[in-house]
Write a structure and sequence with these properties.
5 helices
């Protein structure tokens, strides 16, 4: 008989908690929404949480980094072209050590440009993946 009373007590406590949560949703929805957003939940659908806004912000950051990478790539290309033009100047031809140094700098710039190009391709893949995930999330929201 005592185990029955204990079960009744546990069930009663559970029911009171559920009612309290329901009342909180009715009385303070903005507060609860803010707490969920602070935790990273931006879209809750039948208990399935999606971090849509965080993913959208991440996608924008990737786009900004990609633009900065392209600008840096352009600058490296300009420096490489200037170094290339320096190697054919007459005063560098007379100084093999200086010409060698300019050629080494150009080689370093070319390697950096190549690395930057690879990074840019990875960023494009990441951006593509972000877009696919966002599209999937938006399709789930429609359903």
């Amino acid at each position: 008989m005592e185990s029955l009373n204990f079960k009744d007590l546990v069930v009663s406590i559970r029911e009171i908690c559920l009612i309290a949560v329901f009342v909180l949703f009715l009385v303070m929805p903005k507060w609860i929404n803010q707490r969920l957003e602070d935790a990273g939940f931006t879209n809750v659908n039948l208990g399935f949480a999606q971090w849509e806004r965080t993913l959208e912000e991440s996608r924008k950051e990737v786009e900004e980094v990609e633009q900065a990478t392209m600008a840096t790539q352009d600058k490296l290309n300009q420096v490489s072209q200037k170094l290339e033009s320096l190697t054919v100047r007459a005063d560098l031809r007379s100084s093999p050590a200086l010409r060698r140094e300019v050629l080494q700098l150009k080689a370093q710039v070319d390697v950096s440009a190549s690395d930057l190009n690879r990074s840019q391709k990875e960023l494009q893949k990441s951006l593509s993946n972000h877009n696919i995930i966002l599209k999937d999330i938006k399709n789930v929201k429609k359903e």
